[in-house]
Amino acid sequence: MMAKVALAVPCFNERGRLDVARFAQGAEQSDLQILFVDDGSTDGTADFIAEKIKDHPRLDLLRCEQNRGKSAAVREGVLHLAKERPEAEWIGFWDADLSTPIDEVRHMLEFHDLEGGRADAIWASRVMRAGSHIERRFKRHLFGRLFATAAGELLGVRAYDTQCGAKLFRREIVPAVFGEEFVSRWIFDVELYQRLGHDRILECPVLSWTDQPGSKISVFREFPQVFRDLFRIRARRLKR
Ligand SMILES: Nc1nc2c(ncn2[C@@H]2O[C@H](COP(=O)(O)OP(=O)(O)OP(=O)(O)O)[C@@H](O)[C@H]2O)c(=O)[nH]1
Ligand SMILES: [Mg+2]
Q1: Would the pTM count as exceeding 0.90?
Q2: 121-125 and 90-94 as β-strands: parallel, antiparallel, unpaired?
Q3: What does the alpha-carbon distance between residue 205 and residue 93 come to, in Å, rounded to a whole number?
Q4: The domain containing residue 110 runs over which residues?
Q5: 25 lines ligand 1 (CB under 6 A)
Q6: What atom of ligand 1 comes closest to residue 163's alpha carbon?
Q7: CA 54 / ligand 2 centre spacing (Å)
């Protein structure tokens, strides 16, 4: 039997893109609980979700009035689930665009078992390899590799891909790992890597990942901020 899993899905102005039916189907098939976290959307996302989830006991909504960015929404959602879903063995977060299909949850748990079942966190990773289907725009792939290289050099992150929006954590460790607020709005995954430590994380190469249109993160617009955040995270660590 599959371990019980609950996922927080950060949503900001997702009204035009969020496929609630696909989430509902995935939740049913993979035996999951899903919590959409609306991060102060201005396009009516929260009401849209509230209407759509009415008949789905596996889907919930948490409304945050103010927009505070992905990291804060994920943190709120995951902490909420750790408290309210004591039956869940694994708590995670998942991007709203379903670039990573929900059935990767099952694959990630199976992979974790295969690898000895010791890790406290399982992170989906977009490794291009024979047998998998990774469809990612060239520009984003390039930016991703550049980012991973910079994170490796500046912060000693030894992961292939910290930024995939599909991650699971053992419920017991959630309060400690997510307790403190994050420095960065976007690259908080790097902070999670630092908080957990290399050996407690297992990267799982996804079977399938597909770039979805309607991304809210423009590589060029965010570029300076992302690199500034790497230095901010480093400065914070050096201060300790
Ligand atoms: N809470 C919150 N979530 C956001 C915000 N902007 C984007 N998100 C969420 O973050 C997730 C990823 O956003 P995307 O727009 O898909 O980002 P992306 O550029 O496609 O990034 P990749 O999928 O990694 O290529 C989605 O669940 C979004 O709803 C924001 O300001 N606040
Ligand atoms: Mg995306």
Answers
A1: yes
A2: unpaired
A3: 17
A4: 5-239
A5: no
A6: 24
A7: 26
Buried-exposed string 146-159: b where 16+ CB fall within 10 A, e elsewhere: ebbeebeeebebeb
Closest protein CA for atom 31 of ligand 1 = 69
Tell me the ligand closest to 124's alpha carbon.
Answer: 1
> In this predicted model, what pLDDT tens digit does every residue of 168-197 receive, in sequence order?
999 999 999 999 999 999 999 999 999 999
Lowest mean pLDDT among 17-21, 110-114, 137-141, 148-152: 137-141
For residue 188, give the ligand nearest its CA: 1
What is the DSSP pairing of strand 90-94 with strand 166-170? Answer: antiparallel
10 lines ligand 1 (CB under 6 A): yes
CA of 211 to the centre of ligand 2 (A): 6
Token digits of residue 196 = 């957990």
Number of domains in the chain: 1
Task: Answer yes or no: is pLDDT of 22 > 50.
Answer: yes
Distance 216 CA to ligand 1 centre (A): 6
| Residues 164 and 125 sit within 8 Å (Cβ to Cβ) | yes
Check which CATH number belongs to the domain holding 65 and give it: 3.90.550.10
